[in-house]
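As the next step, I selected for study a record pairing a protein sequence with its backbone structure tokens, which the following lines show:
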Amino acid sequence: MKTFLGVDGGGTKTRFLLVDEAGRVLASHLEGPAYYLEIGLEELRRMLAHGITQTLRQGQVREEDLSHAFLALPAYGEDSKLLPALDAAPLEALPHRRYRCDNDMVCGWAGALAGADGINIVAGTGSIAYGEYDGRRARAGGWGELFSDEGSSYWLAREGLRLFSRMSDGRLPRGPLHEQVQRHFALASDLDLCAAIYGKEIAQRSQFAQLSKLVAAAAAEGDQAALGLFESAAEELADMIDAVRGQLRIPAQASVLVSSSGGMFQPGNGLRAALSAQLQRRSAQYRFIEARLPPDMGAVIQAARLNGTPLGADSVAALARAAR
């Protein structure tokens, strides 16, 4: 029996999934973040070793019997000098070396489209678009939170606080967002926000990104400035999709499947509908579909592909039933 391990590493949590060739889930496990720029390489190695060991033990599969593994790591490939260290990170738990590491955008795409040609847009702590077409692969966005990651929760949090500052000093009318931020930080003075943000309280990327919930709450209350940020996010994400399509050299007349993954696409916040509307207004042909499988199952699909034994339609359908 062939078995496949998928690891979906993220900015806040890492999911481990073990399945067999029939698509039966044998084990699943959850660990903390895999963002090595935040937690360090040593912690990444420790986390992966613990997660892999626990998952294989739960699924009663010996390491030497595992057919293949695919590990998706955030920021993988964005520093070529670190690639050997990242590729070696799972070695303690997988000494047989039947695995491959890559950027977490790959498992988002593989899960959303079940390995079919098309483009997936990820908007979570960061943002990135990735697609494959006729054997070609391309990405856009994902340059990091300081000057990119448009449409992500970090970007939304940063832009939301920018709006708060403008509301506070009179450059914008005050809306529900102003009160949301005041209440969240229990600000005695609006300028006390500087101490809360630039101090150690929310210094980590993943913690800062959580402030996007304040913008979402304000938008739900009808704050026009906050609602405008969601429209801007949709436009930025659509630009990434267009850029990937161009890199893949997809014929103009071809209809391209597009799906989405990541925590920014929460039901009710309107981002997915706004992105779909953006794509419909563009000249290129797109067909927006619901993600077929979550990213951890995408990692499993990729592991099977790399093993040279891709999961068949029945196995993918079994995974879809398990996901429900």
Notes: Strands lie at 3-9, 14-20, 25-31, 68-73, 99-103, 118-123, 127-133, 136-141, 256-261, 286-288. DSSP finds 13 helices and ten strands in the chain. Residues 119-146+231-288 form one domain. The mean pLDDT is 95.
